[in-house]
Amino acid sequence: MNQRSCAALLVCSGLLAGCGLWSNDAENERGNSGSGGTGEGGASSHGGVTSPAGSGFGGESIIIERCIDGLPVTSQIPRLLNRQYEAVMRDLLGVTSVSDSRVSDLLVGDFDGPISTAAWQIYQDVGEKIARMVMTGPNRSKFISCDPAQAGCLDDTIKTFGRKAFRRPLSVDELARFQQLGKTTPAPTAEELAETTLYAFLVSPSFLMLPELATDKPANDIVGTGVRLSSHEVATRLSMFVWGSIPDDQLNEAADKDALQDKEAILAQAKRMLLVKEKATPMLEAFHQRWTHIDDASGHWYKSRHDTAKYPLYSDKASAIMPAEMNAFFDDVMFGHGTFKDYFLSTAAFVNQDNAAIYGLDPKGFGSDLKRVELDAMQRSGFLTRAGFLSSYANYESTSPFMRGTFISLNLLGIEIPTPSPTANTLLTGDYKTNREYLTALTSPPDCNRCHAILNPFGFALENYDAIGAWQTVDPRGGAIDAAVTITSGSGQPSKQISSPQQLMQELASLPAVQRIYAQSWVSFAYGRKPSWEDQCVVGALAAKLASDGYELLSVPAELTQAESFSTRARGML
User: Fold this and answer.
1) With the CA atoms of 331, 336, 340 and 344 taken in that order, what torsion angle do they form, in degrees rounded to the nearest 10?
2) How buried is residue 69: exposed, middle or buried, by Cβ count under 10 Å (0-12/13-18/19+)?
3) Predicted local distance difference test score (pLDDT) of residue 14
4) What is the Cα–Cα distance from 383 to 388, expressed in whole angstroms?
């Protein structure tokens, strides 16, 4: 047995390059911050270190501790994300589906850069279908509430609807251009003109994009490159961040009064909006999918299937409920006055008749809806002990300490594992009493062990959970489960001995690296950009607050609106 056999398994675990904890070096140059883009994925460069593509934000797991004054590179004309486009259609026109499909499912995937010909054609096709649906359906009044044949009706509609669609009042030139739509030969009917007008709004760059065209410099421009956003632009940033949609009447009124030019006013609006749970929840769920890499196409979440003969508690129905169960857990932490530690220590779980048995509960006590229950803290502390994670990061017939340990090392701690050799070899044979014993032998060669010594312990600490997430004390090979391990949380960090899953969760909840990566994930998500030196003051301040037992997580998105870069952009950037 040599390193080849462990290499084959590591490839299946999806490990990425660069062993060690990423941080800024003294020789790293500021010009390599790689902060451009929308923050929706892809690779970026950080002081000469390339972050992994597909990590959600272009590599927000990187720990950058140096803070530089200034404004990060950011787009002046960001485009509506697909989830935002869908929410805008719901709030603006009452449209939740088109041809029995979710609106977002009809669009091309979110991407950086200019709109391609194919994407532009799709926007036109979807806009045309929505315009026809609205004008011939029950939501017509959301666009036009008068007879388009009446004098002044369409002009008033252009002004009132345009104010909502463009998130600001139309300019004189824009109003004139929309009014020219009917000046054709042959002249359209009033109904045709109304539908064409709606379609023109839906394919307008001012609707599909979120342009920031203000030119005023802020009074406290430290580095001389700042442009203060207008109140309408601040309102748009705020609504697209918190609700993923258009501003409501109260926010629009504040913008029209130019009352969003100080941080206190912005904070008050953010706090108000976060308490509208049904509109804030989609944003929070989208964030948690980014932080935990649920939305990462290269991740394992919800992709694994398991042998029902070996695991009779597993079923397609139990698997199908896992995404909703995880969403409900994170929502409970956020809206239940939870703190950062509750991600790892909360015993709340959301159970129905399909997944109850996995948690050792009687399915007869549950129906089809998820019900909140409290589980045994010794066995079920935090999201990493829920079936959604444990079942996803496991093999068909067995647990996978490699996958579970890699998730913790890579995504929560920022420890990168080098890519193994692509060569393969036969697996070990012998009388091994536990999966842990077998995998320890498998990864014992020096070339394997230098990184498995870091990731294996995190996975071995979770061996009390079988492949579907049920609690086990006896390994399927016949030996007793041993969860005692020595973990290392990163380069330069002392090792620590733990003896149970609960102790592992307690340790992760208190580690500064985990808190900082979480903070960086929020900053990247909220500001729509990849990690940069200039954002690290915000990241560091937020990470420090997360360490406090009394700091409620729902305060995080509101507080992020207080950074100078939230209401200011860098002048001259695309």
Assistant:
1) -70
2) exposed
3) 35
4) 8
DSSP string, 537-550: HHHHHHHHHHTSTT
Enter the tokens of residue 21.
Answer: 């904890």
**Cβ atoms within 10 Å, residue 227:** 22
Q: How far is CA 168 from CA 90, 198, 210, in A?
A: 19, 17, 11
Contact between 58 and 41 under an 8 Å Cβ cutoff? The reply is: yes
Can you count the helices (H) and strands (E) in the chain? 22, 12
Distance of alpha carbon 114 from alpha carbon 112, whole angstroms: 7
Nearest CA among 371, 382, 372 for reference residue 347: 382
Left, alpha or beta for 48 (phi > 0: left; psi -120 to 50: alpha)? left
Residue that has been written with the tokens 């006896």 in this structure: 474
Dihedral sign computed on CA atoms, order 241, 243, 244, 250: negative
Rounded distance, CA 182 to CA 188, Å?
7
The DSSP code sequence of 347-411 is -EEEE-TTTGGGGT--GGG--SS-EEEE--TTT--SGGGSHHHHHHSB-SSSB-HHHHHHIIIII
Task: Judge whether 501 and 471 are in contact, CB under 8 Å.
Answer: no
3-state SS class at 222? coil
CA distance 553 to 247: 23
Tell me the helix, strand and coil percentages in the chain, rounded to 5: 45, 5, 45
Peptide bond into 186 cis (omega under 30): yes
The C-alpha angle with vertex 452 and arms to 295 and 297, in degrees rounded to 5, equals: 15
168 sits in the region (left: phi over 0; alpha: psi -120 to 50; else beta) called: beta
pLDDT value at residue 530 = 86
b or e along 102-137 (b: 16 or more beta carbons within 10 Å of the residue's beta carbon)? Answer: ebbebbeebebeebeeebeeebeebbbbbbebbbee
DSSP state of 218: P
356, 321 in Cβ contact below 8 A? no
What is the structure's pLDDT at 34? Answer: 33
Exposed/middle/buried for 557, CB within 10 Å: 0-12, 13-18, 19+?
Answer: buried
pTM for the model stands at 0.87
Q: Could you tell me which of 43, 107, 49 has the C-alpha nearest to residue 80? A: 107
Low-confidence residues in the chain, pLDDT < 50 = 1-61, 424, 573-574
Q: Please tell me the predicted confidence (pLDDT) of residue 49.
A: 26
Q: In whole angstroms, what is the distance from residue 63 CA to residue 66 CA?
A: 9
